[in-house]
Specification:
Layout (H helix, E strand, L loop, with lengths): L4 E2 L6 E5 L3 E5 L4 E7 L2 E7 L6 E5 L4 E5 L4 E6 L2 E5 L4 E3 L2 E3 L6 E4 L4 E4 L4 E2 L19 E7 L2 E3 L12 E7 L8 H46 L9 H11 L1
Antiparallel strand pairs: 1-2, 2-3, 4-5, 6-7, 8-9, 10-11, 12-13, 14-16, 15-17
Subunit structure: Interacts with the extracellular domain of FZD8 and LRP6. It however does not form a ternary complex with FZD8 and LRP6. Interacts with WNT1. Binds heparin. Interacts with LGR4, LGR5 and LGR6.
Main location: secreted
GO molecular function, one term: heparin binding
Length: about 240
């Protein structure tokens, strides 16, 4: 072993030197050169840092640099995240998205253009005027629809979600709110009065029947029992025999 090479290294190094740091790594660790000023130091890591991708070989695992416009990559030709000012599309970093796609500034990716989608129209509402359905001949009726899919930045905008048209109905007079309320109140009082009258009549009838029953029972208790009238034929029989 070279005098400058040591095997009692720290930090996952298999071999190292005082000047260059790690020279080789323990199994499954990646070897990468870090620049410190004008000097490069070898280090051993469990995964490659940002801007690098890992390659495994029988003798050593290395971290290689991504392309200049890549922030992270799977291989040198397949980027997974782009640096600022670039948009990711199919593993590549582009300054401008292809036709048919749009730049998503939130994810920094080229995505498909999404157009607005709406539901079917609802049925037309009843003919109304100033919120009422009576007291007029000409009014308006409306229908609405809902937005199912909002558009992306370059997608087709959403159309109107409500429509109105004029309508004609047979004129009918509106019932005055106060009069209608008064009539309902009178009907309610009359109904309650009738119910109370029926209840009182039923109570009086039950009381009268109970009083009559009690009177009959009292009469039966106070009056003496009637003696049985004698048989006239039996009383006259001895007289006839004497003659």
């Amino acid at each position: 072993v070279h005098p400058n090479v040591s095997q009692g290294c720290q930090g996952g190094c298999a071999t190292c030197s005082d000047y260059n740091g790690c020279l080789s790594c323990k199994p499954r660790l990646f070897f990468v050169l870090e620049r410190i000023g004008m000097k490069q130091i070898g280090v051993c890591l469990s995964s490659c840092p940002s801007g690098y991708y890992g390659t495994r070989y029988p003798d050593i695992n290395k971290c290689a640099k991504c392309k200049a416009d890549c922030d992270t990559c799977f291989t040198r030709n397949f980027c997974t995240k782009c640096k600022s000012g670039f948009y990711l599309y199919s593993g590549k970093c582009l300054e401008k998205c292809p036709d048919g796609l749009e730049a998503n500034n939130h994810t920094m990716e080229c995505t498909s253009i999404v157009h607005c989608e709406t539901s079917e129209w609802s049925p037309w509402s009843p003919c109304m005027k100033k919120g009422k359905t009576c007291g007029f001949k000409r009014g308006n009726e409306v229908r609405v629809r809902e937005i199912i899919q909002h558009p992306s930045a370059r997608g087709n905008p959403c159309p109107a979600t409500s429509e109105s048209r004029k309508c004609i109905v047979q004129r009918k007079r509106c019932q005055k709110e106060g009069k209608g309320k008064k009539n309902r109140e009178e009907k309610r009082k009359k109904s309650n009065k009738d119910e109370s009258k029926e209840t009182r009549q039923e109570s009086k009838g039950r009381a009268a029947r109970r009083q009559n029953r009690e009177q009959r029972e009292n009469n039966n208790k106070t009056q003496p029992k009637k003696r049985k009238a004698p048989n006239k034929e039996q009383d006259l029989a001895p007289v006839d025999a004497a003659h």
